[in-house]
Design goal:
The complex is a heterodimer of chains A (345) and B (541). With 345 residues, chain A is mainly beta. Chain A contains three helices and 25 strands. Chain A is 10% helix and 41% strand. In chain A, the strands form five sheets. In chain A, strands 2-11-20-19-13-15-17-18-12 form a nine-stranded mixed β-sheet. A six-stranded mixed β-sheet of chain A has the order 1-25-21-22-23-24, with no helix packed on it. A four-stranded antiparallel β-sheet of chain A has the order 3-10-9-5, with no helix packed on it. In chain B, 34% of the residues lie in helices and 26% in strands. Chain B folds into three domains: 76 residues, Nucleotidyltransferase, domain 5 (2-Layer Sandwich), CATH 3.30.420; 135 residues, Flavodoxin domain (Rossmann fold), CATH 3.40.50.360; 312 residues, no CATH class. Chain B has 541 residues and is of the alpha/beta class. Classes of the chains: A mainly beta (345), B alpha/beta (541).
Chain lengths: 345, 541
């Protein structure tokens, strides 16, 4: 288990009264229960309680799924929905793959979820299989630390972490080069669909970015679907979005974490959306206790020190909101709506 | 409450924000002493101690009288209502038509809906839907006898749902029709349905589609937690209607869903009655932000955001609904609120058809911080019922917590004491309909006179919204005189209606019913901007 560093000097500043009202953003979670979907027909390659290593195939899914209808044979009552229909490789007289999952029986005939061209999914993290539910999913428990994001797209994936740009940077397609191949890159505030597609093309295994717009998400997912449909065995690629859709810099506590683990092996997991840190011995920095970040509004992305509650205040558009004073650098405190702030823990 | 306390906390733990109100009984009546809201997850004890500190600083004698201190306030008795996130309901039918019928009922419940039928989905995809971990229940229905379009697939559907219930022992199943009577049900479920399984509930078949949908809705709502704030708020609304002896409508738009309820006071020996629709479709931001959802919000905006940027803003609003509520964020929130109100109105035609209520209460995070005139305009834009109503806000969000009191007499007593405090008057809203087509082009069509108004008469111009100052607490009779007969509750050329004041004053809406916005984007924006000037005046935009 990773050790947290002792609180830095600023943490000695007593937490101001009222800071508990600021939305708390959890940076790390451990253990992680990573969930991998099993669609009807998919085959789990692991059993509950089994230890799994990174890169080990844990499930197999059909690239071209379909439903078969076959008469129930033998002692049909011994077969249950969710069971495998036949051993792997079984084929009917007309060459149909009979390997699949029994869905349901109706009128003496089974409906079977089957398909062609099975493709394995490899575990991005090491852990122990916690639960296997055919047709639903596999839960893998890892005792590693994981950075929590908002959403994850595609994936799962793993690779060495590389910080490609600063927290406020925006990685353009022309700056994505093949030297980053095999790594998961921290791409700053935002990335467009073209840069994402290029990142995938040059062999980058994943992207961690503060914000990704709804258009970029759709464009990338469409490109990913096309790519997966065309190419068998496409290497894994995942995107972890830390904040949301509108552009904003990566928070300094998160950037501190990424810098601390740069060069180490990490994995992007989709459910929950996290970046799993492989090395448990790395010393992870803790954010100052009085650090608050403005997550929206005109000062979005700014970080400062908590200076106490300001009470109800009037803000633009004629709204009256509970506010707090925040000190940015050496300047006098500024009143910010309480809802626009976040703190880290 | 087993003993009678002299102070208590009313807590509404919503999906977006947590609201805490401090109630006290300094003399013979309960009073609202203060309230405060913070992002969801904020510690309630901390909110309560801040409220106590504010009370001590403003009225230390009352604090002493009620033995309230910052340290002990957390130990006060609590009335607590919780908004639970919507759960997912898989709606399955043997034909697209059957699914449509079921969906129309399920859409009027707090469930988030996913639909599938053999006409649109492969059995593998339908099984996948039924087995998804986020699906908490299945609603499957068929006609009795099954329709011609259902017969071919009904056995497969029964086998599929039976198998899903066998594979997921925690799954709740509602059978609307003779699905379990099919032999395939036994094949799928492994045993015949005999009514002994509590998690499988039988409902009315689809043949009841022309009748009221209450029986099936009650079954579906019965599967959800009963302490939900939108459920308990209706109980408080009943008490309020009975106390005020007025018909009262409650409109609540929250992050995860909406509520529209109409309560009428009891007559003779009958108690008060309410009709309510709780629906996840009226969430401030739909859980799946698609182009239709984005367009629905864009239709109410005057800015220059394109569809993608608006989608980004809505996604951020969904992820952090407590944030960005000032400046442009406030206007975006009200645009999303209008879209949600329109969906709520579409899903509650039974309530929309009722006469205008005496009082309309708005509640929920969507309205919590907006300027009063902007709230009045949002309601007038979307809930277009000709007539007069007094608008008020459940500003401290205590209707839900009060509704958690099980004893109706005790609840009524508390509501009677708090009626003046729990409702913040926004003003009165008069919606005029049936203005002759020839007079719909910005022409003076009549005038309004308030008795005792020193400002005299105000001209009424068709197609516009007029705000007339009427201070909170003031009451007056508004006399509206028109050149032609119009409809304000009833059809007449001269109408006198009682109105009461509020922060927004009196709003007289002379636009089309239903509201017809210009098709052209620039004209629509210009019209919205002109009306918006009334609600977001000057540099406060």
């Amino acid at each position: 288990m990773a050790a947290r560093s002792p609180s830095p000097s600023r943490a000695s500043v007593a937490e101001g009264p009222g800071i508990e009202l600021v939305a708390r953003r959890r940076l790390l979670v451990t253990p992680v229960d990573a969930f991998f979907r099993l669609h009807p027909g998919d085959r789990a390659l692991v059993k509950e309680g089994e230890a799994v290593g990174r890169g080990q195939p844990i499930l197999e899914h059909f690239r071209e799924p379909r439903t078969l209808v076959v008469p129930a044979q033998g002692d049909a009552d011994k077969q249950l929905p969710g069971d495998r229909a036949a051993p792997p490789g079984s084929r009917s007289r007309d060459g149909q793959n009979l390997d699949g999952e029994l869905l349901f029986r109706s009128g003496g005939r089974w409906r079977i979820a089957s398909g062609d061209r099975a493709e394995p999914l490899e575990s991005p993290v090491a852990g122990v299989v916690h639960e296997v539910r055919p047709g639903a999913g596999i839960t893998l428990r890892s005792t590693a630390n994981a950075v929590i994001g908002r959403t994850a797209l595609a994936g799962p994936s793993w690779g060495k972490l590389q910080v490609a740009t600063g927290p406020d940077g925006e990685l353009r397609a022309q700056h994505v080069d093949v030297g980053m191949a095999g790594s998961i890159i921290v791409a700053g505030a935002r990335m467009d669909a073209e840069a994402l597609t290029r990142a995938r093309a040059v062999g980058i295994r994943g992207v961690v970015v503060a914000a990704l717009g709804i258009k970029e998400q759709r464009d990338f997912l469409a490109s990913e679907r096309r790519g997966r449909a065309a190419v068998h065995g496409l290497p894994p690629f995942g995107i972890l979005v830390l904040d949301g859709a509108s552009r904003r810099p990566i928070a300094s506590p998160l950037m501190g974490l990424f810098e601390a683990i740069e060069g180490g092996m990490v994995a992007i997991v989709g459910d929950p959306p996290t970046l799993v840190i492989d090395d448990p011995s790395v010393l992870l920095p803790a954010p100052p206790a009085d650090l608050v970040r403005v997550r929206s509004g005109p000062l979005a992305g700014a970080e400062g020190a908590w200076a106490g509650l300001a009470g109800p205040r009037r803000f633009p558009a004629g709204v009256t909101l509970e506010a707090a004073f925040v000190r940015f650098g050496g300047r006098p405190p500024v009143a910010i709506p309480l809802g626009d702030l976040e703190r880290f823990a | 409450m087993t003993t009678v306390p002299r102070a208590l906390l009313a807590i509404d733990a919503g999906s977006a924000t947590t609201s805490v109100a401090l109630l006290g009984k300094p003399w013979k009546r309960w009073r609202l002493l203060g309230s405060m809201a913070a992002p969801a997850g904020a510690p309630i004890d901390e909110l309560a101690s801040i409220l106590a500190a504010r009370l001590i600083s403003t009225d230390p004698r009352m604090a002493v009288e009620l033995t309230i201190s910052a340290e002990s306030v957390a130990d006060l008795p609590r009335l607590e209502a919780v908004s639970t996130p919507p759960q997912t309901l898989a709606v399955l039918g043997a034909s697209r038509r059957a699914v449509g019928l079921l969906e129309s009922v399920a859409a009027r419940t707090p469930w988030r809906i996913r639909t599938a039928s053999p006409e649109t989905h492969d059995p593998r995809e339908m099984t996948e839907l039924a087995l998804r971990p986020d699906v908490a229940a299945i609603l499957v229905g068929a006609g009795d006898p099954p329709g011609p379009d259902e017969r071919g697939w009904l056995d497969d559907l029964a086998g599929l749902v039976g198998a899903a219930s066998r594979r997921r022992p925690e799954l709740r199943v509602v059978l609307a029709g003779p699905v379990a009577a099919r032999p395939a049900w036994t094949e799928g479920a492994g045993r015949a349905f005999d009514g002994s399984q509590e998690r499988i509930v039988e409902g009315p078949p689809l043949g009841m589609r022309s009748g009221p949908d209450e029986p099936l809705r009650e079954i579906l709502e019965g599967l959800l937690p009963g302490r939900d704030s939108r459920h308990t708020a209706v109980r408080a609304l009943l008490s309020l209607s009975d106390t005020l002896d007025r018909t009262v409508e409650l409109i609540d738009i929250g992050l995860d869903g909406g509520l529209r309820a109409m309560a009428s006071p009891g007559i003779a020996d009958q108690g008060p009655a309410a009709v309510a629709v709780r629906t996840a479709q009226a969430a401030l931001v739909p859980s799946d932000i698609d182009d239709d959802g984005v367009d629905a919000v864009l239709a109410w905006t005057t800015g220059s955001l394109d569809r993608h940027r608006m989608g980004d803003r809505l996604m951020d609003l969904h992820q952090a609904p407590w944030a960005d509520v000032s400046g442009e964020g406030a206007r975006l929130r009200l645009a999303a609120t209008r879209a949600a109100l329109a969906r709520l109105d579409a899903h509650s035609p039974d309530i929309a058809a009722m006469p205008s209520p005496d009082v309309t209460i708005v509640s929920g995070g969507a309205f919590a911080i907006a300027p009063a005139r902007a709230v009045a305009l949002a309601v007038a834009d979307t809930i277009r019922r000709p007539g007069t109503t007094q608008l008020a806000a459940d500003h401290a969000r205590i209707l839900g917590p009060i509704g958690t009191i099980d004893d109706p007499d005790e609840r009524r007593d508390l509501v009677a004491d708090l009626a003046d405090d729990l409702l913040a008057p926004i003003g009165s809203l008069v919606i005029v309909a049936n203005i002759p087509a020839g007079r719909r082009t910005a022409t003076r069509i009549g005038r309004i006179t308030l008795d005792g108004d020193v400002h005299g008469r105000h001209d009424l111009v068709s197609g516009e919204v007029a705000f007339i100052d009427l201070a909170p607490g003031d009451r007056a009779t508004a006399t509206l005189e028109f050149r032609d007969a119009v409809r304000v509750g009833h059809r007449a050329r001269r109408v006198a209606v009682p109105v009461s004041g509020g922060v927004a004053g009196l709003a007289v809406d002379l636009r089309d019913v239903p509201l017809r916005l210009p098709e052209r984007r620039d004209r629509r924006r210009a019209a919205l901007a002109a009306w918006g000037e009334l609600a977001w005046p000057g540099d406060e935009r």
